Amino acid sequence: MSFIAKTASACGRVARPAGVGLLLLALHAGTPGQGLPALMRQALGSDPAVAGAAAQLRAALERVQQARGSFGPTAQLSANYTDNRYREAPEFDLRPFNGQQAVLQITQPILRGTLWPALQGARHQSHQAEAALAQAQSEVVQRLVEAVFELLKARDTVGLVQAQQVSTAEQLALARRAHQVGTAPLTDVRDAEARADAVAAQAIASSAELTLRQQTLVELAGAGTETLLGRGLDGQRLPVIDPASVLVWLSDAATGSPQIAQAQWALQMAEAEILKARLGHAPSADLSYTLSLSKDTGTVTSPLARRGDNSAIALNVTVPLFASGVTQSRVRETLALRDKAQSDLDLARRTVGLAVRQAFTGTLSAVAQAQGLEAAVRSQELALRVSRRAYEVGTKANADVLDAQSKLFDARRDLSRARYEAWNNFIKLKSQSGQLGEADLTHLDAQLVDWRSEPMLTPRR
Length: 461
What we know:
Elements: H1 20-28, H2 36-46, H3 48-69, E1 74-88, E2 93-111, H4 115-180, H5 186-221, E3 231-233, H6 246-256, H7 258-278, E4 284-296, E5 306-318, H8 326-392, H9 398-432, H10 438-446, E6 448-450
Antiparallel strand pairs: 1-2, 2-4, 3-6, 4-5
Helix pairs in contact: 2-4, 3-4, 4-5, 4-7, 4-9, 6-8, 7-8, 8-9
């Protein structure tokens, strides 16, 4: 849907954008908005980062299975067949013979110190993959909410500009009538025309912004966004957050943040690798059983056929003696990697802590700004009514009325943005603390009401 403004009409120099009729039709159709939980499921199902993280988790779980299987026995069967052609001096008569052999070998590890840390490392890696998947999902939900709010902010801006066009057209018509009867100078008409042209340009820009936001959300969620245009935030409900609860949010983030969890599991993996490297010095023991079946039609030294079987049980002990310093180097390498993992964990804690504080402060600031702008809108509405009456009795110029109109619509636009920013920062706060889930999307979806019930876009006389 396009909302491109057309050239101002000759009579009023203000024209509605080409898509205004479609927008108003969507608003008055009464169709329910598409729920945020449904959009979330669609976005999660189509996001490549989530798909990649899920595949990484499956691979990590298979590595756990492989590490666990290393404790069990292994069996292998080998078979061979040889066909010989033998000639011996001095006659060099040809004597063919062949042989067949099958060998079954079963090996059970008895003592392998590296198997346990390898299993622990695989388990830690699977937990890290789970945290990575949770973070990818949380980021998708956060981007989705941001994209939805950017779309609704652009829609509100389009509606506000349309309302401003109507008010500007009315003021332009009033200035022309006053000029025709000689009660207003020509400058009032020119001021109104200039303001109408400026608002028309704003309409073009806001319509293009709305189209871009629609395309962005379609690419993210993989679904149409037309039904969302009929919904908006309830201006009476804002996020409720205790200004003194920042330490609680930081504590929740320390235990629930997927980013911190990934760094913690990476540190555990590094510890397991250190133990595994140190056990490279340790001896190992395997128990093996071998069964061999063979038969042949002769050998080089005997023309008689033979057939037999052989079985053996063996305990194989291996003691590492010297590896040219490789084992010690491997230990030092794992120690260095452990130090890096510890530094990464410290960095993750700092990064998440800063993000939590920013989102916390942003939520409080946006809530306070929205509450302040509500009073500013009421004041600007009163100022506009006073300016209009003063213009009608000739005590104020048309430029004063136009300025009051501009300030009113700017305040309404800022109020709309502050409300969306408050909820957007609150969702970021939930995401950074590891608490964002479908229940939060359901709660946020309940805040989106019929856009027609929001009186902010209706000019008050």
